[in-house]
Amino acid sequence: MGPLGLIEALIVLGIVLWQVRRFRERTGAYLLGVSLVPAILLGLVITRMPACGSGMSATGECYAPVTGPALIVYVVAGLVGFVLLVVTLRRMFDT
């Protein structure tokens, strides 16, 4: 991904979060969508590989210690997006 991808992601995130008051459903959908695939993939990595430093597997593959906290961040972002999306859609359809 590199620094250019990170800069692009931060710009898009800034634009989306800037619109949170006007378009809450868009922000909720963005957070939910952006967090689903990484959370699933990191969850699979954690369940199928040993952590580095806890003994190597037969293939020599392991995941970095930062993988666990990254998974937590993606899950929290997904939950925040889901709640924001549901609350906004309920308000839209209740009126």
Helix and strand arrangement:
Blueprint lengths: L1 H17 L5 H25 L18 H28 L1
Helix pairs in contact: 2-3
Task: Characterise the protein shown here.
This protein has helices spanning 2-18, 24-48, 67-94. The chain has 95 residues and is mainly α. It is elongated and about 55 Å long. The N and C termini lie far apart (43 Å). The mean pLDDT is 79.
Cα gyration radius (Å): 17 Å
What is the oligomeric state here?
Answer: single chain
- E-strand count: 0
Shape category? elongated
Low-confidence stretches: none
Helix content: over 70%
Summarize the main sheet: none
Number of helices: 3
What class would the helix/strand composition place it in?
A: mainly alpha
Question: Average pLDDT value?
Answer: 79
- Could you give the distance between the termini? 43 Å
Q: What is the chain-wise order of helices and strands? A: HHH
Range of strand content: under 5%
Briefly characterize the structure.
With 95 residues, the chain is mostly helical. It is built from three helices and no strands. Helix 2 (24-48) packs antiparallel against helix 3.
Descriptive labels:
95 residues; mainly alpha; 0% strand
